[in-house]
Amino acid sequence: MLDNMSNELSLFIDSSRAVMPLLLKIMGGLWAFNLFNWAIGSKLNVLGIVPRKVYGLPGIIFSPLLHADFTHLLFNTLPFFALSLFILSVGVTQYIEVTVIIWVVQGILVWLMGRRGNHIGASGVISGYFAFVLAQAIDRPSVTTLFVGGIALYYFGGILLSLFPSEERVSWEGHLFGFLAGVLAVFLLSGQFQQWLAYIKI
Predict the structure, then answer these.
(1) Is the pLDDT score of 202 beyond 60?
(2) How far is CA 201 from CA 116, 167, 187, 193, 194, in A?
(3) CB 128, CB 142: distance < 8 Å
(4) Residue 185: what pLDDT?
(5) Alpha-carbon distance 32 to 181, whole Å?
(6) What's this model's pTM, rounded to 2 decimal places?
(7) Is the pLDDT of residue 163 over 60?
(8) Mind listing the domains of the chain with CATH numbers?
(9) What is the DSSP letter of 66?
(10) Residues in CB range of 123: below 8 A, 6 or more apart
């Protein structure tokens, strides 16, 4: 049993190393995009989510890429990097699927139900990744998912507090809807849901 646990963790570490170059490119792209935005006076921030306004719809796609300032992006970088690594280590395809579900669902929900204002930042996607990692440990318990879930909860458990109203300028709705989207992603990508889809097609 110990050998199996050790082998599974070794595979996780090897997979993490393999996807590291890709993840570094993603992070580099995020930082480059924001540096460019700041260099032009943050003019791209108009592409954030403005709830229930037609001109706010592009924010569903662009808002997670935009950050108010250096501090905003810096504080999002570590959890985005770590949680992305946890999901990427299982496979690039899964990471893309999870990201698309969380990105789009949380964006739509913020546009439909968010407070008035301009919602920007990757925090909603980060909350979704966090929820996905935790929910996956429950839905598909294994040495790796439990190990990763435990690390995520220990280091990023504060995300749970961000799901409720706090500071006026913090989009807690984005955090909450991102978290719910992460749980939804586990369900949509689960074997049971795939079996249900196959049954419906029949």
Answers:
(1) no
(2) 41, 47, 18, 12, 11
(3) no
(4) 96
(5) 27
(6) 0.93
(7) yes
(8) 2-201 (1.20.1540.10)
(9) -
(10) 76, 162, 171, 174, 175, 178
